[in-house]
UniProtKB/TrEMBL annotation:
It comes from Archangium lansingense. Residues 1-66 are annotated as: Disordered. This is DUF1801 domain-containing protein. Residues 89-180 form the YdhG-like domain.
Length: 188
């Protein structure tokens, strides 16, 4: 075995081994990318160790929740939870009805709108919050029978506007959902 000896530093007469090395990069004072900063709990409450507080969802014009564009069930559920008042009940009802009738449904939030589709086929339905109603969009609604009641400027699209207190025909909406899911979907 051979021992390695530290080379002397000619300028100061000390060995390199005894001198701490300076890093080529500056020490960071901010959290690493991808890590969220922890927020402090409200006065009088105790935060669980490692818990992060959720940022309140901003409501846009008409009470439409502003949810970041993302795929999956979680952003859709965040949108539904942020829908104001009675509209949140409509969102939960629609989501449950769609999942019940289209078991392999794909979900996402894009353009502050929950979208429902089939993998590889595109989106067949979306809904959006307005001041006095929730607008359900059937992207190829003109192919559904009977036609959903709301016309559109787009030749393929039909709407169903749900207002507070409306009596909903669950069987009819379920039929439209099944029919829409069987069609080729809208691909943006």
């Amino acid at each position: 075995m051979t021992e390695s000896k530290a080379k002397p530093n000619k300028a100061k007469g000390t060995s390199r081994a005894s001198k701490p090395r300076k890093s080529a990069t500056k020490a960071r004072s901010t959290p690493k990318a991808g890590l969220k900063a922890r927020s402090t709990p409200k006065a009088g409450t105790k935060a669980k160790p490692g818990a992060r507080t959720a940022k309140p969802v901003r409501l846009l014009s008409g009470g439409n929740p502003q949810i970041a564009k993302a795929d999956g069930d979680a952003p859709v559920q965040a949108y539904i939870a942020a829908m104001p008042g009675w509209k949140s009940d409509i969102g939960r009802w629609l989501d449950a009805l769609i999942v019940r009738n289209v078991p392999n449904v794909r979900k996402a939030v894009k353009w502050n709108t929950p979208l429902y589709g089939i993998e590889g086929q595109g989106w067949f339905l979306g809904f959006h919050v307005f001041t006095h109603y929730v607008k359900v969009t059937f992207f190829y609604g003109t192919s559904l029978r009977p036609l959903p009641p709301g016309p559109s400027k787009d030749k393929n699209t039909r709407y169903l506007d749900i207002r507070e207190g409306d009596e909903l025909d669950e069987a009819q909406v379920a039929s439209w959902v099944k029919q829409a899911a069987a069609l080729p979907g809208w691909v943006p």
